[in-house]
Amino acid sequence: MPSGFPLPIFSHFVTMKHWLVLEIFASYISSVKGYSLVREYSGQSFFDLWDFYGAYDNTTQGNAIWVNESYATSQRLAYVDSQGNAVIKVDNTTDVSMGQNRSTVRITTQDTYDVGSLWIIDLSHIPFGCSVWPAFWSFGPNWPENGEIDIIEGINLMPDNQISIHTTPGCTHNGSEYQLGTSGSTTDCSQPSGCTVMETSPNSFGSSFAAAGGGVWATQFDVSGIFIWFWSRPDIPASIYQVDSASIDVTQWGIPHASYFSNTCNITQYFSPQNLVLDITLCGDWAGVGSSYSASCGNSGPTGLCYEDCVMGPGSPRYDDAYFNISYVRAYTSALPSATPTPSITPTTSINPTTAMTSSTTRYGGLFTHTSDNNGWGAIVMLLIAAPIAVIGSWPLMFKRWHHRSIPPL
């Protein structure tokens, strides 16, 4: 720093620089009205707009039969309970013989949801137990090329939820500091494990999740990135509990638990509109193999093998906790206050529906995002505003470098 440069002014100036940048971003975020509800799955009509898989698990090699709707309903593997919550469960009443698989459920939304969406799920119970592999996730119509987002996923007796994304080659995860979870060792999201983030907040999976009264996940699917939050029941923000559930404000949610920024993974390139999925499989190529199984469940039966010790034989008490209990799933879309028209949804009836949610609006994400228009003008405007402030704020550092090199500033 040049001799005679007033240090107190320098310190105050740097503080002002950071304050101005934060104010600009806060003002920009607060100018957005928020997200508008486009679909709610809840109550007696919860299952109306989902397709049942109706086939063996041919995706994870699990020892499960994802039954059709009529069988799931008649056997009460999928139903709405007396509290109005949707229940999806593994068959815990059948004695399964060698060579047979156990009945369970996989359902997929008939609608797809495009970039600019927000999905919220409220549950009081997630399936757990040896051999059990539940998930709440999304995929594009041409899976796996159109991307996959795993919001809730875990196996066996894992204590914590694992979030991940899966893509074709070229998308990476930089392990950003702007997340509360812990990133896995793989940064290439095309690898079999995908780019994982392990939840670090308590009560995100298993028996502790249920004991805490459940919780809520929110997933922001935005052009600027994919951001996922989790709250245990006591910590759910007021904006989610608000009476008017037709709109929601994400600006007070704080740092996400998992953040996948578009600067290392172009969201519109690697993800198409997404279907939402709820499923439970058994054993398979994660829950039932190697140390993944033996670490917590290797002593659960005489053989030390997932299928023989868990799937075979009586279902109770083995699978008494293998069920989802869901209050609702809600899908929202975002738009600037003046943007029209509102995005629409076109339901489909196939198990693998085509794009059903389209919009010509200027979309807006929440925290750590910019406007989601195709031309990226929101990001450009923010850059034009923030860059001069950052440059001005770096002048004292430039003076310091010049002084160190004995080169006088111009």
Please give a structural write-up.
Helix content is 22%, strand content 27%. The protein contains ten helices and 22 strands. The strands form four sheets. Strands 1, 5, 6, 9, 15, 16, 17, 18 and 20 form a nine-stranded antiparallel beta sheet that branches. An eight-stranded antiparallel beta sheet has the order 2-8-19-10-11-12-14-13. Strands 3-4-7 form a three-stranded mixed beta sheet, with no helix packed on it. Helix 1 (7-30) packs antiparallel against helix 9 (377-393).
Low-confidence region ranges = 1-33, 336-410
Tally of extended strands?
22
What fold name stands as the CATH topology of the largest domain? Jelly Rolls
Derived structural class: alpha+beta
Strand content: 25-35%
Number of helices: 10
The average pLDDT score comes to: 80
- What's the CATH architecture name of the largest domain? Sandwich
